Amino acid sequence: MAFRLGLTGCSQGNNKLQYVLRSLAKDLGLHRHPLFYRGSVWGTWRWEYDYGSKEYWLTVVYFLFAWFIQAYCHYVGQYAFLQTQGVPISDVVIKGYMLDIKYQADVLRAEVELGVLLFGPGTNMIMFCAFMGIAAFSYWWLDAFTEQGCRLISVWGILAMLDPVSTTIVNLLEKDTTNGDIYKLYNKFLLEEGSGVTGIFLTVTSYAIVMCFQAIVLFYYLLRIHMNGHMQDVYARLHGSEFCFFVPNDGEISWKEVQYECRRATGWRGENGELKKVQVVDYLHCDRYDGNWKQKTTVTTIYIKSRNGTQEIHRQFVRLPQGCIMERFGAEQEQISDVKTNERNTRRHSAAVHGVLLDAIAGAGLRQRHNESRAIGPANLEEFSEKAQMQH
């Protein structure tokens, strides 16, 4: 039994993780790639080719563009750091995918070489933080930011996190063990101590720390800022209880819309001479034991009146005592009240709807109209039972 529950929990966690990854891929434009799996037919794997979506190819362009720019920003940051340390630079060779900065590394301290190593990916990280601040400020001040801008920033953050990996791959392909980032500390400790193991350890540890820190910053951006916090909404949907998604006033509308519909109704004419009329009825809720307690609910009804006198409700708006305005449909709509209803009929109707009026007083809604503040219904259960027996 416990093993089965454990498998069920793992399955639910796996489904949630897949849902998060699909949502993230859709935000990045990678939800429809050209080569994708369609399914299996009689146990055989089947793959089909598609041209993909425009968002997918645009994201691919963003990756290529960001990688090309970051490759130069990486070495520009190292060049700026060397200038601040007063290190003379003999030559700078511009290549198609990197900058080859030549300087005399033999006379430098190990701390300076470590700073050169860290300032490469650190420059891209600083630029990502700047872009993230721009997006956050735009959402805070303007309440909007471009969707493509969010994708470009996220692509920049992903590549900034993988900058140590791409730098390592480029240095390995260059096959120049004298002037690569991953060889700087190795050559330094090999020259001074006769062994480069310490340099390898510092290089791997430094790159791991930089990647972890960038991953944390990227996670914060994707969760709180990217697409105005869309992933935060996904997280809330996955971990929230049913009560968190309960919306009591889901059909709430604005007072301006009610005014607009009423103005339109006054000038409307049907093909057969129908007219639209507007009726506003106030319902006053009173407490039998507290004469100072009053609540008012207003019902605004727009109905169609034909020539033969029939009336049909077109739209109905209810302003609840707490101030929100809701539109009611179908069976929830209140019947059109007759303005000429006498006081006796009103009292009879009030006694008939005593149960629903108690619900209205409790906040469930609006049920009956009253012209004055007075107690309605029986005072206690005994009086209610006596009246019920008298009626029978």
SSE map:
Blueprint lengths: L1 H27 L6 E7 L2 E6 L4 H31 L4 E6 L4 E5 L6 H32 L5 H15 L1 H12 L6 H13 L3 H29 L4 H10 L12 E2 L1 H12 L8 E12 L7 E12 L5 E9 L5 E4 L14 H10 L1 H8 L19 H11 L1
Antiparallel strand pairs: 1-2, 3-4, 5-9, 6-7, 7-8, 8-9
How would you portray this structure in words?
The protein is of the alpha+beta class. It has 2 domains: 54-242, no CATH class; 252-375, no CATH class. It contains 12 helices and 9 strands. The strands form 3 sheets. A 5-stranded antiparallel beta sheet has the order 5-9-8-7-6. Strands 1-2 form a two-stranded antiparallel ribbon. A two-stranded antiparallel ribbon has the order 3-4. The protein is elongated. The model is unreliable at 1-7, 35-51 and 339-385 (pLDDT under 50).
Short description:
This protein has 392 residues and is an alpha+beta fold.
β-strand amount: 15-25%
The helicity comes to 40-55%
Structural class: alpha+beta
Low-confidence stretches: 1-7, 35-51, 339-385
The total of helices stands at: 12
Largest sheet: 5 strands, antiparallel
- Quote the distance from N terminus to C terminus: 58 Å
Order of helices and strands: HEEHEEHHHHHHEHEEEEHHH
Strand line-up across the major sheet: 5-9-8-7-6
Give the C-alpha Rg: 36 Å
Q: How would you sum up the global shape?
A: elongated
Mean pLDDT: 77
* Count of discrete domains: 2
Number of strand elements: 9
